[in-house]
Amino acid sequence: MKTEVKICGLKTAEAVDKAVALGASHAGFIFFPRSPRNIEPDDAGRLADRIRGKAKIVAVTVDADNDDLDEIVSALSPDMLQLHGNESPDRVLTVKAVYGLPVIKALSIRDADDLRRIEPYIGIADRFLLDAKPPKGSDLPGGNGVSFDWRLLDMLDESVDYMLSGGLNADNIGEALAVTGAKAVDTSSGVESAPGVKDLNRMEEFFKAVARAETDIIARDGALAGRSK
Ligand SMILES: O=C(O)c1ccccc1NCC(=O)[C@H](O)[C@H](O)COP(=O)(O)O
62: buried, middle or exposed (CB in 10 Å: 19+, 13-18, 0-12)? Predict the structure, then answer.
């Protein structure tokens, strides 16, 4: 099956068009003023109009209140909301009820206890984005370009629908997919030339690396199945 790819932190028409041309399943827009990827809702809405129906439009917010969400949802008309702060399961339920949109709940992972924090959201969040814990000193909850130990995901129930995130780039996505078997991945700084500046060549390299990994995994699984006959 084709891996879903979310490109996050899009800010320009060139990057948005390229993401979709390369086959991105999701396009993420960041609404967090401290981020180098922050975008005004109206600007994001204009960019999203270029690709509506071709990739899912995701509004990424951090502990946003309803006033902020009202403005973002009305300007962007997203397909999904990504809640990337400390939103509780109750808050996720409220956001879903108020906006009638599916929610991706982002969780930051460093160890097994962090992964267990997924439990109260199961059946509430529509999808999870498993990102690395921000490094000490970072004032961004995401987009930090760091990975977590992917082997932790061995303990995750197979029914959990998640996107693998955190420090993914063309050099490590093959190993990340081989270790986790993730069906969906997310990248931001790994396809940038500077914070907030998407690099079209790096985006292309990322998609090529995903395609190579898919071929390798099919070959590996085929060889394993052959051996067990
Ligand atoms: O990317 C940001 O600047 C950001 C800021 C505030 C909240 C979330 C943010 N990013 C969310 C994402 O979905 C990123 O793609 C994810 O954190 C992975 O980023 P990276 O490690 O740079 O690939």
Answer: buried
CA distance 211 to 205: 10
pLDDT digits (tens, 9 = 90+) for 6-36: 999 999 999 999 999 999 999 999 999 999 9
CA 189 to centroid of ligand 1, rounded, Å: 8
> Where would I find the beta strands (DSSP E) of the chain?
4-8, 26-31, 56-61, 80-83, 103-109, 127-132, 162-164, 184-187, 192-194, 197-198
Q: Of residues 90, 126, 131, 186, which has the active-site annotation?
A: 131
Q: How confident is the model at residue 221 (pLDDT cuts 50, 70, 90)?
A: confident
Give the integer Cα–Cα distance in Å for 165 and 28: 13
